[in-house]
Structure formats: C-alpha cells, structure tokens
Amino acid sequence: MVPLTPIDEPSGPSSPASFLRKQRPQGLASPSSAVPSPTSSDYSSTGSSTPMDLRPKSSMDRLVQRARPKSLQKSGRPSSLFGSRRGLPNHEEDEATLTRTTSHPSSVHSQSDYLSSLAASQVLLHGDVQTASGMFRKRSQYLVLTDSHLIKFRTQTRASELFPTIPPSIGRASGIRHSRLSSSGSSHDLNTQNEGLQSIPLNQIVAIYRLDDGKPYFSIEIFHLDEDSFQESSTTLQLHDPRDHDLWLSSIRGTALNARLKDPMPFSQQLVEYTARVLEQDLDYDPHQFHMFRVVQRASRSGGGARSSSDDLTKLTSNICILAIGVFKLHLVPLPRNHKTLSSTSLTDLGGISYGLAALSAFTVAQDDDSFYLRFRMPLRSGISLSIASSYVNDIALSARRTADYLRPKWPEQPFTWNVPKVMDEDFLPIPPIDEDYEALNRTLSAYCAAYNLDASLIRYTVFADVEDGPAFCLEARADGRKYNVLELLAVLRSLRYNESFHTLSFAGVPLDELQRLRDPNGSEHVAWRIRFGEPLDQEEQSNFTLLVQEVRALALNSTSLRRLDFSHCLSPTSTSALRKGEDQGCGICEALFPMCVKQATNIDWVILTGIHLSETDLDYFYSAVIDRSCHFRAIETGHCGLSDRNLSGNPARMEPDWMLNLEHCSFLRKLNLSNLTRASSMEPLIPTRVLSKWRLEELYFSGTSLNKESFMAIAEYLLSSESFSLKILDLENCNLQGHHASELLRSSVEQYQGTREMRVTLSGNRLESGHDLFAEIIRHNQCPSQIIMQTIEYQDENSFRQLLEAITFNQTINYLDLSKLSLPSEADVSTCGLLGRLLTTNRTLLWLDISGEQTHLVASILGAGLYSALNGLKHNTTLQVLRIENQRLGLQGASMLASVIEENKSLREIHCEGNEISLQAFTVLVNSVERNTSLLYLPDMTSDRLWAQKKVSREVDSLQENSASGITPISSTKATVKRTLGKTMTGQRSAHNRMSSGTQPAFDVRDVVSSLSAQWDKEVARLRGYLARNYERTHHTSDGGPGALDFGRPATSSSLETAMRDFSLDQTPRAEVDRQLGHEVEEQDGRVQTDESGDEGDEGDSPLEMK
C-alpha cells in the first residue's frame, strides 16, 4: 500500500462525475471533488459521447434494481460462524433481526432513499481491503469512510458507482500491498451483504482501538452497537503499513466523534432504569451521582504469532456492556438480550461485576485510541486488571476521577496511578466545598467499606470536642463485640488521612495486633511516600514495613493539625514479642512515629504508649527522639510498658540516681512523673538541681516516692531559680516530708517571684506536725503559693491545727485550700471551732475551701458538733465561692445552720455537702433556703443521703418485725414506730384502728412509707433544680424572672412529713383490704394505744422522718 493521494478529476460536463450527477435525483448533495485514496496511481478519464438513450443504466438504477428482499431460504447457513453471539440462541430473534427495518428499509423506495443519503455524504477516506468471511473464506472489498458511515463494498467499481469521486478500478499493479479487513457479520451486514455494500453508522461506534494480537500486521478493532435491537458487532482492520494504520485509526475516531456530536445516540429510558436497578441492588445508586457509558470489555489476546482458530474464539469474550459509576463503585453491567427481557430479566442472573473506587490503584488512558486500563486491588491481595475501550473514554476518566476526589476530598494526591493525556487534566473541575462534619469522614469511611466489602454499621467511633487537644476522634469497640478485622482497621485508618478536623486520635483499647504482624507485598499505592509539605521518603524502605507502621506513619505525615496519639493497651504482649527466637521487631508504633519527629515531619508532641510492651528496638527509637533538641515533646506516657529498671512511673523498678543524668538532654520536657519509685540508698539527690534547671517543667510529680534530705534541698534550690517559674503543679504527696521541709519549699517557691505565684503544691499524707511552728509561720506571712492541698494530715496535738487555722486567717495569698480528711485526737473543741468560724468570717482571699471529713468502717475523721456554730461565720463572708463540707454528719441541726447561711450569703456558687446523714426534712429545709438565694449555682441532689434514709427506714421495719415476733402487739409496736417517725406533730391525735389478723406482716405495709419517701424526695429534687436553673439564668443574664417564680410547689417545712404519711393508715393497708374481701372481721379497738416510751428514749439518732 502506498501513501494516500488525492483524486484529481477533469471538470466539465463530459466528466464521469458530471455524468453521474445528472443521473442522481435532485436534492442529493455533490460529493467532494478531492478525496484521498489509498490507490497506487491517479485516475483520469475523458467524457463519453454515447447518446443518453443508448447508454447503459446508471449505477443508481442498478443498485435500486438489486435492492430487493432476498429469500430467507438462501440464508440457511450464515456467511460467518462468528456473527453476533447475542442473537444465535433465539431463532425468533434471528427472524426479527432479518426482517427489522431500523437502518435499512426493505422496500425499494426506502432502500433507494437510503442509498441516496449515502451517496450524498462526503467521502473522507477510501481504500482496497480484504474481508475474511468465516475462518477460511476471504474476499476482497473496498472500504469507504464518509462523514456519517463506514461502508464496505465488494469491489472498488461498486464504490465508484455510488461515489463518483472514487475512480473505478482498472487493475491492480503487482507487488503493491493492500489493506486487509476481516470482520464478523452484523445485522446490517446480513441485510445488505448480497447488495454489494455493508455500512456502519458512525454514531453507533462504541470503541475504536489498536488490537495487539501478536500477528504480523497492524490491526484496528471497531465495535458498534444497534441499541434498537441490542445487536453488537465488531470489525477488524488489518494493515501492513503503520502509516496507513495511523491514518485509518485517527480518521475513523475523528469522524465518529463528529458524527456523535451531530447525531447523538441517547440511552433509552428503559435501559437507564435497568442500569439503575442494578446499582440499587448493590446499594450504590444515587440519581445525583450516577453516570453510565457504553464500553467494550476487551478480552486478553494470546501472545503467540501463529494464526489459529483459537484467536478467533477469544473474540467472543470481548463484548459491549454498560459502565456505570455510582456513589462508591464502578459497575460493568451486561446488556439485556432484547427489549422483551429488558424489564423482566432477573437482576441476580445478570452476572455484572463492580469494584469500589476506593480500591482503584491505576487508571491509564491510551494516547491515540479509545482503550484504557483499570486496576483494582484489595489489601493483602493481588490486583485485578480490566482492559476496556470506549469512545467516551475522556468522559469516563473525568467522571471516575471526580468521584474519587469527592470520596476523598482532602487528599492532595489520590492513592492510584493516574496516567492520562495532558489534555484531560486540563478539563478537571474543582471539587465543591465540603458540607459535612469532620471533613466528610463518614463519606470516606463508607467508600472504603464499600470497596473492601465491609459492613459500615459495625464500626463505631465518638468525637469529643470539649477536651484537651480537641476535637478528639476515639475509635470504640466493634458494634457486635468482636475484634475489628484487618480490612476494618485499614478502612478507619485510611479514612483519617489528611483530615485536619481532629487534633487527637485515640485507639485506646482497640486491638491492633493483626496490623502489627502483616505486610502487604502485592502493592504500595497506599504507602505514604512523602511528607505532606516536604521532601519525599525512601520508597523501598517504606514498602518493607508492616501495615501498622505504614498506617501510623501515614497518619502522622498527612495531618498538620494532629497533636496527640493514644495507643494505650492496643497491642498485647504476645504480639509485640519476637516472632522468632532472637528477633526483636518492636511494637511498630515507636518505629513509625519517633523517626518522623526527629525529622520534624509531624506536629505530634504527645504520644500515649501505656500498656504496650516496649522492647530494645522500641527504646532505641525512643531515646533517639528524646535526646534530639528538635523534638518538642509535651508528653510521652509509658506507664506499664514493661520497662523494668528504666521505667519512669507505674512499674516495679529500682532507680539509680546517676540514671537521671541521662534526661538532662531533654530540654523541652514539660511534664515529669516520678511517682511510686523505689530508689537505691544514697546520699545523692534523686534529681540534681542542674538537671532540673535544664528543663522548663510545668508539672512535676513525686507522689509516693520517698525523698531524702538532699532531694528536698535540690528541689528547693530549683524553686529559687527563674527556670522554675513555668512550674504550675508540684506534687509531694506521701514523700516523707516534715514541717520544716515543707516550709523551706514553700518559701523558696515565692522568694524570687514577684507577686502571688499561681502554683499548686500538694503536701498530703506527710508528717507536717514535726516543725509545724515554722510551717504555720511561713503561711501567716504570705510566703507560699496560691494553692495548697493538705489532705489526710494527722495531728496528734490539736494546738498545731489551731496554729494552722490562725495562720490561714491572716494569709492573703492562698485562694485554694484543701484541708479534707484531717485527723484530730478527738472532735474539735469549742476554741478550735471558734478559730474556724473566725477564719470563715475574716479571710477575704479564699475562693475554694474543702473541709470534708471521712467516714469508713475503720476511720472516722470529722470535726464534730462544733462545726455547726463555725458555719455561722459564712454569713459574713463575701469572697468564698466553692465550699466542700462532705461526710461531716451535719444532720438536721447542721443542715438548718447551712440553710441559714445559704439564705444570707451572696458569694457562694457551689456547696458540696453529700454524705451528711441529711433526712427528708433537712433536705427540704435546704431547698427552701435556695429559693431565697439567687447566686447559688450548685447544690447536690443528696443521692447518698437518700439511700441512707431509706436504709434507716428498712432497719426500723426489721426492728418492728423482731418486736412482733417477741409477742408485742403489732398495732402497739406499729404506733410506737409511727410516733418516733412523726414526732410531736402527731402526738395527741386519736383515731380508731382496726385490728389486723395475726398473720399480717407490718413490713408489707411500711413499703408504702418508703415509696412515699422516695416520691417526696423526687419532688424536692425537682424544686431544687428549678431554683438552680433560675439562678443560672440570672447569673448569665438570660432571664429576668422574679425570685418567686418557682415557689408554687413549696411544702411547709413542719408538715412535709405529714405529706409523706398522709395516706398511711393501719386500717387501710393492702393486706387489710384483702382480709375484708375474704370475709375476715376486724374488731375495733377503743382507747388510745400505749406508746413504747422506752423505744423513744433509746433512739438517740435522728430518724430519717423525724420532726423536731
């Protein structure tokens, strides 16, 4: 075949073209006068002088004569064994196909019109071809490309008769290689095969692509579809010259594109609904995110060069189908067989396939044909490749990429290979702004679950906003209680990448053992190759890591807002131990995070590794990060990590003093917890002053660690220096501290500090009574910080406690004081309580005070009854805001005094007074006082006191049962209990009561008393909450309601218990009513029931229903 050359025809009325134009009907457009042709030489001819009536009939007349229907008996054997495979099984469909007139009318006139329309089209390219009809029969044909059809003629002469611009054949020059065409028959071919031409409408072409079948020529495969009958056909062009191959390929593609633009082939409504049903069955249909395209799913060809029938058989596996893109997946939907089965086909019989777009690993588009390649890969599995072709490849690529970007909106680079022409990259549209919470986390997580075939409802997580380093993402346990599998963990971790809405990620308690043991050798598309805004990482090194290292490192590298990671108790000791003897792989988390911190590739500065066994490998990564000055760690929590003698907290260890020198290089350390340590006997301090001065600590804990004198002096010297000014918390609980040690530490903390130092010092559990005079003097002269905690201090001499109270009275720096659980030799005497009342009256600095006691089975630390009078000093206090006075056995008398304080004090905001044996009457008194107070914001519901009151009633019932069993009259015993319960408010009232039968149990009826007590308590709680809500609104200026807006439900204090007992009567109990119904007669008893005076005098404790 030689290069294509244009045809130069002579002009004038005698030219063949002019002669043919005269014979065509009017209205047919003239073909182009210059059309390139793959012939060996130009053809020219002179006109003919033969009279019109003697000339043979024109080519149009001959074609019209031959365009008559053929007998179906002659087509008993198909011309090709490889026709449309969709029509072969059904003979009725074959008949309908042969008689249908969708593209080629059967009548002579309609056939003539069709040929006339073909003749009117413009010829763009033509050439001699050879057609393989069947496996062994071949015949020469001539291929013509017009602006609307691709037409095959038997000979060039037949083509020249219809298109005068094509010269007639005058013989072929020897030695010239021509184009070859082999094709399978189509419905159009069957109708027009015997008429000398076969046509393919260009707007019905689905795909045109190169065919690499290993044969010694260049092939082009063309798939086209008649959607009216769902008949698909393929045509293969075989060319020996690569220039001819490229010319035909580009010409057919370009012309087909223009034909689709002029005469598009829209999808029928039935086919759209059919495809939508397929996606809906897969839970992937959304009308706003639904795209469908006609494509060819290509078959893999054999690589051998020999021609065999097996090459033709593989053609059957290439077929036209519908490619649909849903919300999360890409679907390949087979075409229905015909219109009859379009709506009746069972979706379970379709055999379509779908792939999650989140699992897409490669998308490659060919440069010069319609083919493209997709690759999908599930974790830990080999990839699945799809070879597809479509004339709509640009739209498919843009739609798939846009959907992938929508599913991962914050990813700057998608985790798949994107190899497309540059022109397509310019057509991308920006992703719309995210309108979902937490940067569309649910959308991305659902996409991964769909791609990995997971049930998204089993994955649970919680987001906490109002926490330190919030918002915080916390992965919860699986919904069904089982462990998360590998794919579920990968879906969660990969969904969190590039998510800038979280500052904390917590996987506490979620087992990650499977990720720590597995590697994925089948692909690396999800491996983080580079820092988000930095240099690339070593690709080969990243691929060899375990899945846990890869995913944790990706989280650290791909988020700039992430500050804290919590992996506490995520790995079991067996998973972090060596897999083989002598092998130490570490836990993986240290390997993933700490090298990135050294490179300053992440902003994470708080890592929680509690409960994870750290090996030697982990410690190497740990030390390299801790000693590096570029690592700005706020905290690394390593409690219960099996660190043996190198642990800092919470592990059995023996600390050598010299070991602390290794921490000198941690200059950015902010929090140090050295609690519960057992150190070796030494005269050296636990931490030298020069080491402490290297840090800018904010929190320092020695709780439970016995400190020697040298350690105290080192800490005091550190507190004197300006390097300690950033310290906010110093915890010295149970550190074997004495009074003179504590005074020295307090004085050192403020000596060089200008003004009041805001620091909390905990001195709980120490023996402060030794050297207490100096300690009290330091506090009296304001040489101490603003917050002091002194819990569980034991005083052998009450005078020492009086010194402390007097010192605090004159102190002007302490605003937070905790004196709870103090132990005195006995209850505080009158002078001690007077000093406490003076403190409450005089001190104008305290804002927070805790004087709670302690009541256990073995210990009772309370101040005693003198506390009642001391509370009277709060009436004159104008600064205290929070008072804690729990477990002090206030009872009714103390509650009444506290209620009077509430009515007069306007500075208190919170009062914590649970555990004080408060009865219902005492609680009512407190609630009534809150009604008159508009500044109090918190008073407890007294839940523990409520339980105490109910238990006391139950004990009285048990006592009643014992008295009944000992022979005492039940009615008399019951009245005695009622008298003790109601007090003097019920004295003197006489009523007639029915005698109950001997089998009646009083406990059955007293349950009503307990129930009534609970109901009345609920009413008081409701009143209390209403008053507190009113005060809150007033404090925050959200309401202007009057102070009496909530007083409608208030009961009278003296009659509140009568309300609780109003319906309780011995002659109207449930058991008595049953007795009446069964006919038992109850005799009336006259006179007053004698009361059990001895029982009244012996009950010294306050009854829960007592009225005084």
TrEMBL record:
It comes from Ramalina farinacea. This is PH domain-containing protein. It comes from the Eukaryota. One of its GO terms (biological process) is regulation of Arp2/3 complex-mediated actin nucleation. Residues 54-64, 1063-1091 have a biased composition (Basic and acidic residues). Residues 1093-1108 have a biased composition (Acidic residues). Residues 30-51 have a biased composition (Low complexity). Residues 72-82, 98-110 have a biased composition (Polar residues). Residues 1-110, 1063-1108 are annotated as: Disordered. Residues 122-257 form the PH domain. GO terms for cellular component: plasma membrane.
